[in-house]
Write a structure and sequence with these properties.
The protein has 72 residues and is α+β, with helices and mostly antiparallel strands. A hairpin with a 2-residue loop joins strand 1 and strand 2. It starts with a helix and ends with a strand. It is globular and about 30 Å long. It is built from 2 helices and 3 strands, in the order αββαβ.
């Protein structure tokens, strides 16, 4: 499943990088994907919206096993 998550994140990264941010995969445990938001995303006041409505939504659509995405 980790490989699937990495492939899906690779599709998301260009949009984040265009705004000066990025996302790194930290771990995948039982349907919970742990990521680290970096760059401009790290201190952005809307980072939680990006995480839940952007990254989590896309990962859930592409990978049925994903239950939640959390920032660490």
């Amino acid at each position: 499943m980790r490989e699937k998550v990495e492939q899906a994140l690779a599709k998301i990264k260009p949009a984040l990088q265009a705004d000066g941010g990025d996302v790194e995969l930290v771990d995948v445990e039982g349907g919970v994907v742990k990521v680290k938001l970096t760059g401009a995303c790290a201190g952005c006041p809307v980072a939680n919206i990006t995480l839940k409505q952007g990254i989590e939504r896309i990962l859930k659509e592409e990978i049925a096993e994903v239950k939640e995405v959390v920032a660490v």
